[in-house]
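About this split. The held-out portion is used to measure sequence recovery: a designer receives only the structure tokens and must propose an amino acid at every position. Recovery is the fraction of positions where the proposal matches the reference. Here is one held-out target exactly as it appears in the evaluation file.
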């Protein structure tokens, strides 16, 4: 399972990398922010969640039922505009291609580390609670996909 998830995340990072030349494109009918903002935010979340998971203590993981997770994870979907991003993962006013490339390299190194973590390594999400490795990988995929869909809409509308 983890290999499949890791492959999906790797493919998403490749898509993000291909979007860097379009970082300044905007479409106000879809989003107030640019493609660069979407990409930067997705990478900041990816790297922060990965780091948190890598530093977690698997012995502290304990399953707890969470209704939001139970509903949204099988759907693989986050509704748009319902949650405000925490300050720690907000992009800067000026987004440089160099910074995006650097964040992608960091994300790629996190993928290698995530792949070998124990199954009870976890990330504690402010809405979904503690997510073990498998669900953390699912969250990363869903969150990145959410922003890639917005980027796709910016480009196609």
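Reference sequence for scoring:
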């Amino acid at each position: 399972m983890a290999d499949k998830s890791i492959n999906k995340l790797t493919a998403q990072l490749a898509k993000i990398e291909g979007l860097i030349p379009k970082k300044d494109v905007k479409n106000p009918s879809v989003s107030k922010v640019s493609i660069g903002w979407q990409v930067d935010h997705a990478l900041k979340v990816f790297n922060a969640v990965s780091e948190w998971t890598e530093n977690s203590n698997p012995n502290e993981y304990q399953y707890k039922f969470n209704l939001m997770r139970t509903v949204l994870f099988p759907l693989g979907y986050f509704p748009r505009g319902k949650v405000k991003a925490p300050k720690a993962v907000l992009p800067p006013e000026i987004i440089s291609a160099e910074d995006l490339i650097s964040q992608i390299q960091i994300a790629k190194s996190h993928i290698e580390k995530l792949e070998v973590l124990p199954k009870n390594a976890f990330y504690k999400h402010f809405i979904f609670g503690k997510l073990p490795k498998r669900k953390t990988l699912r969250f990363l995929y869903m969150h990145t996909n959410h922003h890639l869909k917005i980027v796709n809409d910016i480009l196609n509308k």
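Annotator remark: The domain at 2-22+33-51+67-156 is CATH 1.20.120 (Four Helix Bundle (Hemerythrin (Met), subunit A)).
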